[in-house]
Write a structure and sequence with these properties.
By secondary structure, this protein is an all-alpha fold. It has one domain. Helix content is about 80%, strand content about 0%. It contains nine helices and no strands. α1 crosses α7. The longest helix has about 35 residues. The chain is globular, with a radius of gyration of 19 Å.
Amino acid sequence: METLANLLTFMAEPWFAIPWYSVGIAGAAWIVYDSFHANSALNPPLKACWPILVIFFSVIGVALYLAVSRPSDIGDYEPGEPKMRRFTHYAKPQWRKVVGSAAHCVGGDGLGILTAMVMARLWGFTFWQEFWFEYAVGYLLGWFLFQTWAMRLHGNGWLQAIWKGGRAEFFSMITVMLGMGAVMYYVTPAVVGEQPLPDTYAFWTFGALGLLVGFIFTYPMNYWLVAIGWKHGEGHEHMLKKKDQQKQQEAHA
């Protein structure tokens, strides 16, 4: 752990933290613009989650977005159904769906986790008080805002969407917080000596590191959730199926 601590001391320095978040904020702003123009077929919840994720993951987040959720030729397609079909075809590989699912999870959860972390540090919580507070806030925000929203877009009624969203979020959040907790408990104190406050560079850089490790930890869980149909990743299979059925009905009318 001492060796790891020595390797990561740079993360608490302004020369690392400022460029990291500057790239993250600029990347998030570009993704917001891109997702409403060239890449407008991006699933609505991911339009919200990718910018959040990129703020914390910086250049890593931008690279993930380009590799997973943005076909390079999407700007050549007409808005509406043509873009939806191109995006859905691009998102078809399982690994892209799983990364999209994990990005949706960590983007939504991460906003709640970091918000709770700010409050917990200012209020002087102990480690375990902070851990469970972050878990609760991240889970509730991810469940009722992001997961329920996604489930509604797949044709579920409100009660069913709340149930399915909470079920998926429960399993995803466990693994995100395992990664986050490991960084908080072992790595951050080893590098900076104590849990940093929100007015320090270390707070934001090690918070981002915790979310990144949580993203890695939750990937296998999201693979399983997508495989059994409890999460959907990305794409518009449900909406395109309805459109195709309507076209068939009109053709036979």
